[in-house]
Amino acid sequence: MTLRQQVIGRIPPLARRDEELRRRARQIRDLRREQAQAERDLAEERARAEQLVDPSEFSARPSFARDLVALRRITVQLRELDPQRRHPLRHVPFKLRNYEFAASHGIRVPTVLAVWEDPTQLDLSGLPEAFVLKSDGGAGSHGVLPLRRAGEGFELLDGTRRLTEEEVREHFVSRAAAARISGPFFAEEALRQPGGGPIPDDIKIYVTYGQVQQVMLRRMARHGDLKAATYRYLRADGSDLGPVGLGQAPGPDIPVSDTLTDLVEVARHVSLALGLAFCRVDLFDTDGGVVLGEVTRTPGGRQRYRDDHDEAMGLGWELAQSRLELDLMAGRPPGLLHGEHPAPRLYPETHVSRSADPGTWAPRVVPCSAWCGTT
């Protein structure tokens, strides 16, 4: 023991002071250890938080765009989960099937002129002056060629490109080989729009189980060239929604058809009979009235809309899902429902839909008065 320690030991106040200093020193060491551990814990929490959604970027509001992205993901997952095509989403991507389905509800569809199982079999010799070639499966314009005869060959109806018959055939062969389209392949009548150009305006109606969210009018200056397209958006009653589509060229001069009420009713009917919370029904206003173009489960592209419109359509989708579920609970058969009108058999004899055991391709016929709201 040092002399200093001996002196302090004989003087009690000094001894108590040194003991208090030692106690405080221990307390400081303990607090520093706790601080160091807290800083390590904070660093770990921050690292975990970086893997999560940034709350400043997360919005709890309904969103059509967000729901559409989720639906696209679901349709991909269903390829493995549902190889037998039992889910109604798996029924939609086939043009000829949609034609048969729509015709069974009394909805006019294009007249199919010829059908081929394989694109190498395409024979255009007996077709009229103008016609449209299509693939049964495939999105966008990859499997569509609107043609008219021009000299020894053909040209697109917009006059932008000439092709020989062999080039037409190769167009479908190459895209089928790349799995961008699938057969069978068919030719149908070329539709004419009253007072319109060679390519009728697209009328694309976004429907959430019987309720129209928007009517998109699209004018294509050139076949398949979306950069040259113009757009106009309407409510179901024909009033303008304004420039709700982002990054699109406005087309305020695109006329609103006098048959808009009929177009909306057809889209509503198709949606209810399809049995999905959302679909897009593509229609044409023609010299012969309203004609179905196709039914789309997941519209392509970014589908970017003004925030308030995106939210309104997202809310409509959510409510539609609940309405559909309530109908299913009330006895609506799940999936696609065919009507009682006579419908053509458009697939080749070798197609599964024409076999003795068509499986999920067999139509389920239900009177329209039961779930579509009309007779």
Give an overview of the whole structure.
It is a single chain. The chain is α+β, with helices and mostly antiparallel strands. It folds into two domains: 78-109 and 192-348, ATP-grasp fold, B domain (D-amino Acid Aminotransferase, Chain A, domain 1, 2-Layer Sandwich), CATH 3.30.470.20; 111-190, Dna Ligase, domain 1 (2-Layer Sandwich), CATH 3.30.1490. The protein has eight helices and eleven strands. The strands form two sheets. The protein has a six-stranded antiparallel sheet. A five-stranded antiparallel sheet has the order 9-8-7-10-11. Strand 3 and strand 4 (153-156) form a beta hairpin.
Key features?
single chain, 375 residues, alpha+beta, D-amino Acid Aminotransferase, Chain A, domain 1, Dna Ligase, domain 1, six-stranded antiparallel β-sheet, five-stranded antiparallel β-sheet, 8 helices, elongated
